[in-house]
Amino acid sequence: MRDALVAAAFRLFLERGYEQTTVDDIVTLAGVGRRSFFRYFPSKEDVVFPDHERCLADMTAFLAGGAEHEPVRRVCDAARLVLRMYAENPAFSVQRYRLTKRVPGLRAYELSVVWRYEHALAEYLRERFTGRPDGTLRADVIAAAVVAAHNNALRSWLRSDCEDDAGAAVDHALGYVQATYGHGVAPTAPEEQKKRPDGRPGPSARPDEVVVLVSRRDAPLWRVVQELESALGRG
Amino acid sequence: MRDALVAAAFRLFLERGYEQTTVDDIVTLAGVGRRSFFRYFPSKEDVVFPDHERCLADMTAFLAGGAEHEPVRRVCDAARLVLRMYAENPAFSVQRYRLTKRVPGLRAYELSVVWRYEHALAEYLRERFTGRPDGTLRADVIAAAVVAAHNNALRSWLRSDCEDDAGAAVDHALGYVQATYGHGVAPTAPEEQKKRPDGRPGPSARPDEVVVLVSRRDAPLWRVVQELESALGRG
């Protein structure tokens, strides 16, 4: 029933236009009553994005179970759940992408959905970065970077009519974010930074020491920074 | 007239609530006709955000004149225009912040405004990064990071009832983004990287060389990375 309503709605949106299609038109074509429509969808806009609520719930559950994982990697993996939802039905995703671009109201709806994903990622990171310097700032910036990278790759894929490899494009985009933030901001408890398990002061308690790093000039910068952080005891 | 309409609108929004106030109520209190209202504001929502169109125009003009500047610094400075708009009238900004939090329709409107700022920053960066590897990806991610950092500081300031120093908070937040992206992604033409003006190969054409960096262990990471980039000839 739910799928039949979505199919009927999109058929009419494409034939007549979104604005010109009423909920009555949709239920007539689907052969059901108005009440059935509103049981599944609070409004006509919601039928355009039938899977986001489920995906948001999946993302929230995924993040709730991720307290042990490296946090930036975890939010990147959470973003991949959104891609998977789009990739499950490429033809539908392309139709919706084109429709959303044409209808300002749907664009606004989509922005509010994107904000909810970003908010879920930011909340998870804020929790993980509790007590760290600039914890909420880092959380908000990294969540925004993850969403922007994911959406950059997603849009390229949708514009290519799903001919490119969506998974590879999103992996590449999220790899850029992970290379930027995936180290150094990983939360280590301040006590862990200051003390070793044996009670001797740890790396960051020895400010007077110098660190020497030797690198090949052609090494990628992220790789050098990774080594550097490791040498400084902040990895 | 425009200011009088905004003042009348906010007085009513605070007294009766946003949803319970009509455009007729606003023009009656301001002592003008409906036509005057709609000359300045396309809808009731627009009177809540009377300065964003001007600020967006200022930002676009500022970015259009910034082709010679370091791009990440330029978008950070562009974001400061938004802060300045909020800081010009702190009492009004706090009232609006509280109102927007309570009314979902205004929250959606605000998201669309934020998206337009982010889009303006991303378009500028895309132009500056044309032809660079991952140019659009970097542009989108950096624009999103700038907006997230700016808004993190802006919201803290609004929540403090404007008691904190807004400029210092935003400088700190944008400093985090600049330290992350302000070097290394600065577009240098590939030819410049490969050749010196005298035709001899430049730094990145000498992959077999090693670079030695010596750092105090307590130096801030961004400072070390800056030195590192300089040593690698990528600053």
UniProtKB/TrEMBL annotation, chains A, B:
Signal peptide start and end residues: none
Domain of life according to the entry: Bacteria
Organism, scientific name: Streptomyces brasiliensis
GO molecular function: DNA-binding transcription factor activity; transcription cis-regulatory region binding
DNA-binding region extent: 22-41
Keywords: DNA-binding
Region (Disordered): 185-209
Statement: the UniProt record of this protein carries the keyword DNA-binding: yes
Protein name in the entry: TetR family transcriptional regulator
